[in-house]
Amino acid sequence: QLQLQESGPGLVKPSETLSLTCTVSGGSISSSSHYWGWMRQPPGKGLEWIASISYSGTTYFNPSLKSRVTISVDTSKNQFSLKLSSVTAADTALFYCVRSVGDRPYDIWGQGTMVTVSS
Amino acid sequence: EIVLTQSPGTLSLSPGERATLSCRASQSLRSSYLAWFQQKPGQAPRLLIYGASNRATGIPDRFSGSGSGTDFTLTISRLEPEDFAVYYCQQYGISPLTFGGGTKVEIK
Q: Do strands B86-91 and B98-99 pair parallel, antiparallel, or not at all (unpaired)?
């Protein structure tokens, strides 16, 4: 069964770049029709889609974050990554990596990793 | 972007009762690309319904989804103790993907 696991620093300083990695186990990140993405949830608030990348490398971004976001895949490690630059306290959130297949919604979620932006 | 408005914000019910949750979209959704997720404290969201009315794998049949266009409903026919949680609708047909603000189903 496919599983996702987020990893990365739990604390990032304002103006720096947040970097997270999602390790895929139980399946290949290169699987056809698969899409990999990132969501976030500020403490006590709702969910927000950040960005996604397809099995073929096509990227998709939330316009509200596009200028600060990079998403990439490392097929050799079966991982995909998120970079969010110029972070502020408003970027403090629980970050989830997710998977979808074809035109289905994101059906597999990692357990989430909390990132706090603070000096 | 498509704005999803969920109502009510909080639903106070007893186990065994029926829960009806609403999600309204600011514009018609393509091919009913509307999903429902359940989130319990300290857990990641779990996909319940996709395509407005299709149950995801392993989801009990007491959960059902309906609707099209701009108005969608999640119904829990008889609330079990484990169903008390926050529920989010999400549209995944038009970028950017967006979520509703959530409905909390709490024990009365």
A: antiparallel
- Per-residue pLDDT of A19-38, as tens digits, reads 999 999 999 999 989 999 99
- The reply to whether A111 touches chain B by the CB within 8 Å rule is yes
Mean pLDDT for back-to-back runs of 10 residues, chain B (108 residues): 97 97 94 94 97 96 96 97 98 95 97
Taking CB atoms and an 8 Å limit, are B56 and A107 in contact across chains?
yes
Structure tokens at B44: 């990641």
Among B residues 45-64, those touching chain A with beta carbons less than 8 Å apart: 45-47, 50, 56
Which of A92, A110, A85 minimizes the C-alpha distance to A19? A85
Counted across chains A and B, CB pairs separated by less than 8 A come out at 46
- pLDDT averaged over every residue in chain A: 96
Which regions of chain A does DSSP assign to beta strands (E)?
Answer: 3-7, 11-12, 18-25, 34-41, 48-54, 59-61, 69-74, 79-84, 93-101, 108-109, 113-117
Contact A109, A38 (CB under 8 A): no
Q: State how far the alpha carbon of A7 is from the alpha carbons of A17, A18, A27, A85, in Å.
A: 15, 11, 18, 17
- Residue pair A36/A80 in contact (Cβ under 8 Å)? The answer is yes
